[in-house]
Every structure is written in structure tokens, then in C-alpha cells.
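retry 2 of 3: previous attempt timed out while embedding fe (ii) ion. Reduced batch size to 1 and resubmitted. Inputs unchanged:
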Amino acid sequence: MPNFKVASKPESPYVHCLAPRERLSIEAIVDELLHNFGSVETAEFADACSLSAQQLPRRLRELAHRFKYMHLQCGAVLLRGIAVDDHRIGPSPQHWDAPWRNPPTLREEVTQCLLSAVLGDIFGWRTQENGRFLRHIVPVLKESEEQLGGGSSVTLVWHNEEAFHECRGDFLSILCYRNDEQAQTILSYVGDIAIPDEKWAILAAPRYTIRPDKSHFPDQNVSAHWRLDDHAFARIQCMYADPQPVPVLSGSREKPFIQVDEAFMCAIEGDAEAAEAFDWLLRQFDDKKNSIVMQPGDMLWIDNKRAVHGRSVYLPHYGPRQRWLRRVNVTLNLRASLPYRESALSRHIV
Ligand SMILES: [Fe+2]
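retry 2 succeeded.
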């Protein structure tokens, strides 16, 4: 059995370059999935992907296993050398609202879903692009100052994906198609931070609220390809109007989980001590920050409960070569979200 190095000092992300043999194995499984599916955006595909991930080379499955169960001292793994065909994928889309059907990126999409499903089950949010598993992250001029994937002229501040929601993903994957602008993806890992007792006592208490981020609201979901009625946003509206108190830290002292969204989270009104502790934690994330300039074919597995992520300011090359990343959410416990889904077969949280 191959042994993976467990770093004696914090190492984030852990880097794994795919070996030629691993690439061939991945491509054979991708071919099989492509033979049966013309889109990744169905529950049937997601189920097939979970099963196919069990055929991935043992070394990759072992890496995923060690990452999932926190044997590696890092909040992210960088897989390098994933096949991205710059010519075939065509020009970068100018908006996240790209067509769902017959995408030129289908092979890359299947590959990313497969390499995400080795961590758990992929899923989507009905209130975010109608449940699309694979989001496009591209710069959008009119969103340049927003805390959204389309932003660029402001730092995308520290967050966990869907920090506001109890069914937030355990992991996310980000695959880079293009990054000519050399934008930096930033990461920080709670395992790198020494948390004193007095800070733990405050941060592990439900003294904070988090509101849903803008991507889950109707005005960010206007699409030429589908239409969502207002009913779909009812729960989100409640979470916005009446956010319930939550802690920032939970679980074990040794390996705490985090629930952070710098832009949409605050201490309960009047709780200056909680506000100060949260600010302290954010500055710790700054101090331990890792910056990665993702290259085409780089894929990050990010532990959404142990690491925060964001993006540096950058100057987009608006146009056909603009920065283009894809993102997928992964859960370790699909069963837990059943009350939020239409059925056990659905992969969309409403
Ligand atoms: Fe994010």
C-alpha cells in the first residue's frame, strides 16, 4: 500500500501531480461515463459518478480518504495534470449563465465530477443557478465589486461555501480551465491556528449569525435557460430575515470545524466580545494565508469545514480568454439534507 507523507509541519495545500498511469485510468472511466451521459446535470449522472469513482486508481482513492478523514495536515489538496483541452472548450463564457446542453466542456465536466465524487456525493442548490452542479466562475464586469464569483476588483473575503446553511458542502472542488490573469486563489486552514482557551470559549458559542450570500437570491438567478419561481426562495428569505445564532467553531478542540463568512456574518448585536474574537480569527486566517495561482488542469479539493477560501484582486482580460474556473459541491452525508430535497433521488437542496 502506498504511503502518503503526513507533513511534520503544516503544508497546505498538499500537492499531487497525476501520474501518466493515473491519467489513463481516469480517461477510461470518463469515456465510459461519456458513452452513457450527454450532461452532468442530472441526478442519474451524479449517482453513476459516485459508483464510477470507486474504480479510480487506489492511490487517488487513498489520497481522498486521507484528506476526508483529516489524516493530512492541510485544508486543501491540489491535483495537477488534469486534461483540459484549451482548443475544444472554446472561448470563455461571458457570464455564468452559459447553456447547459451539449457543452464543449463535457469531458472536463465529467472528469471534475468524477474526481469530486471520490470525496463524497456531488449536489447543487436549487436557489443557485437552479441546482447546477458545475458552476462557471468567470469575471463579470457589472459584478466586479461584488462578493461573488464574478467579482475581481475587490478581494473575495474569507468564507466557507454556503456557510449560512446546515447542509453546506463538506468539500468543494475548483478546476481551472484558464487563468491568464494569474489571479490568486487564497486559502487558510484552521489547523494552522493555535486557538487559546478564552478564544475557543467565545468562538464555540452560538453568538453569531450568518445571512445567505447574494448568489442565492432571485436577482442573481435570472437566466435565459430556466425560470425559478419565487417559491423556491422562500426558505432563503426566512434565513435572511431571521438568521439563527451559530458558533464559528465546533467539534473537537484538536480538529475543530469552522463556519465562516466574513462578508455575511457578524456577532449578535451588542456582543462586542464575540465581535472581537471573530476579528481575531479572521486576522489569524490572514497570517496563515496560502496563495495559489491556479493553472489550466489544476484542481483543488477544499475542505469546506476546515479551510476558508477567497480570491485576490485581479485585472480580468474580459473576453474569450478571460479567467475561467468551475466549481462543484460535495457532501459526506447526502442523507442529512433529505428534508431539504424533493426526494431521495434528487441532488438539489431547496
Ligand atoms: Fe467560494
